[in-house]
Design goal:
This protein is mainly α. It has a domain of about 90 residues: Arc Repressor Mutant, subunit A (Orthogonal Bundle). Helices cover about 45% and strands about 5% of the residues. It has a two-stranded antiparallel sheet.
């Protein structure tokens, strides 16, 4: 449903959000999120380009979130790096299809529902979830 780039961006943002406002270097972020460092750097540049993250160089530098986690949604992250492509016109380019056919109308409804669902989940909600499974962390077995 979402691209690998969007998945990687969500991992990175979730990891930053769980770090209590302290910056994380690209190396540490790559290790924690299991994202190849070179790919992660490109993803972080995309997030920085739309002001979702800040990058600080030098000792003690790294990446930080620019937006409070209660304002930042899954949809914000996905749209920053690989937006869901809605179907606004016939993908086949058929002139007689002045509106979407039933197939493409239903597919677009699914994309719309996904967008709405993503827009309703903040990064803070992910971090503060009561689930025993912590994002991006191995949970010791009992």
């Amino acid at each position: 449903m979402i691209s690998k780039t969007a998945e990687y961006a969500l991992r990175a943002v979730t990891c930053l959000a769980a770090n209590d406002g302290k910056p994380l270097s690209a190396d540490v972020l790559a290790e924690k999120t299991k994202v190849p460092r070179r790919y992660l750097t490109r993803v972080m540049q995309d997030l920085a380009a739309v002001d979702l993250v800040d990058s600080r160089s030098g000792p003690g530098g790294g990446y930080l979130l620019s937006i409070p986690t209660d304002k930042l949604t899954i949809l914000d992250i996905v749209n920053a790096v690989a937006p869901l492509e809605r179907i606004n016109a016939c993908p086949l380019g058929l002139e007689s299809h002045t509106s979407l056919c039933p197939l493409h109308a239903e597919l677009d409804k699914a994309y719309a529902a996904t967008e709405a669902a993503f827009a309703n989940v903040t990064i803070r909600q992910l971090i503060e979830s009561t689930s025993p499974i912590v994002p991006l962390c191995e949970v010791p077995s009992k």
